[in-house]
Amino acid sequence: MKKKYIIISALVITGLFNQSCSDDFIDVAPTEQVSAQDLSLYNNNEGATSFVNAIYAKFLDWDMSTFSWIGVTSITTDDADKGSTPGDTGSDKDILDALTFTPSTPSFESLFSSNYQGINRCNQALQYLPQLTNADQNLRNRLAGEAKFLRAFMYFTLVRSFGGVPLVDHVPTSSQEDVEMQLTRKTKEEIYAFIEKDLIDAIEALPLKSAYSAANVGRASKGAAHALLAKVYLYQKKYQLAVDQCNLVTGYSLTPNFIDIYKVSGENNAESIFEIQGSGIETGKGIQQYTQVQGARGTGGWGWGFNTPTQNLYDAYTAEGDTERRDATIMKKGMTLYDGRVVGADADNDYYNYKAYSSAYTTQSSTDTNIRYLRYAEVLLIKAEALNELGQTTAAIPLLNEVRQRANINNTTATSQANVRTAIWKERRLELAFEHDRWFDLVRTGQAQSALAANGKTFVVGKHEVFPLPQMFITEAKGRSAQNPNY
Length: 487
Fold this sequence. Notes:
A two-stranded parallel ribbon has the order 1-2. Strands 3-5 form a two-stranded antiparallel sheet. The two termini are 42 Å apart. Helix 3 packs across helix 5 and helix 15 (393-406) packs parallel to helix 16. By secondary structure, the chain is mainly alpha-helical. It has 19 helices and eight strands.
C-alpha cells in the first residue's frame, strides 16, 4: 500500500445506523459523513478499498501511535525515562515514568478511545463491504480479512493493556443490547478468543506478502496474521499453537545489518512482516509527530526529547558485547548518525531513540518513519521461547543464536531450560527495544517487579499487571464495568 494512498478520514455512514448516544465514551465522532443515499458512490473497487484504508489511517493519529502510546509502552519501563527537561512533564509522562498513574491519567484515555475508534472503523468496513456488490468479490474478501486482522491487532493492544474490555463486534445501534455491549467488560479470555477467531478468519482471506503489488506494500498479509496469532498464543502460554503458527510464517529473512531495518531503504523489506506506513512527502500522511516527540532536544537537537533510553538499557547492550544493536537503537550526544548528522554535544539528554529517527524529515511533524510492529526476528524468538517452554530446549537454542549472529555477538552459553528462558527474554529486550513490547513482556514473564526496581521504579504486584481503565469510561458505565484491582 503506497503511503500516499492511505486516507485520513473515517467513513461513517449516517442514516444506516444510530449511535447509542452522542456522548458514549467509545463512540466515534465522524471526521467525514456520507449520507445513506451516497453509499452507492462507494459501490466500486476504489470505494470498497477506502473503507479499509480508513482503518490503516487511524494508526497515523497522535492518540493512537504517538505520545500516549510511547508513554505507556516505553516510558513506563526500564528501557526509557521521560527525558525532555524537568519542567516539561509531557502532560503525564512524568507520572507514567514514576508508575504513579491513576484512572484519570490522560494517556490511558487516549489509548482506550483511539483503539475503539479504530475498531469502529473495522466494524463499519465489515458491515458495508458485503453491500458493495459492484466491487470485485475477491477484493472484498481480502479487504474483510485486512479489517479482521486490524481489529484483532487493536483488541490485542487493549487486552494486554487493560485485561478484559468491552467486546464491540459490530456497528452499534440505539438498542439497549448495544448500549450494554459498549459499556460492559468481557473477560480477557473472551477477548483473546475473539482475537483468535478474527485472525483465523484473516488467514483464510489474506494473500501472501509476495502476492501484493508495489502499490499495496504494507497491507496486512497471511504471514502477518500467522505471526500475530503466534504472539497471541504465546501471551496465553499456548506454546504448541504458537510454534505451529511460527512454522507457517514463511518467505521472510533477517536483514544482514541491523541498523538498515530502520532506514527508509529498510522499510517493508524481507524481514518486515507488518509495519505502520508513514510518509513525509504529503502533509498528514506521516505518523503524527512520532519522530519529533522523540528527537534530540536542546542545542544541536531537533525534537522534544521524550522517551530517552536509560543507562540501564545502554549498559545491558554493552555487557552483552552488543555494540551493533546498541548503536542502532540509542543515539548519544555528539554521535554522528548514519546520514552524517551530528547529535549536539550539548543536547539536553544523554541518549535518544534512534529507531524513531528520520533522516529526510527530521524536524517535520509528518515524517517518513514507519513503526515496525512484526519482524521475522521476533517470530524466531517467539518460536524459541515456545519450544523451550515445551521442553525442547535444544531446538530453541539455534533460533536464539540466529538472532544473535545477525547482531554479531557470540552464541548463547545457556543450555538449561531455565537459563535459555532467561537468555531469550534478554534477547527480546535487546532486539525489540522501543518497538512497544517491553512493558508487556515484563508483565507476562513475571520480570516486572525486579526489572523495574533495578531502574528505580516500584512495580506493585497485584495492581500494575494491567493499566487502570479510564475514569471517564468507568463513570459512564454506571456499574456495568468495574475498575481494575487496586486503582
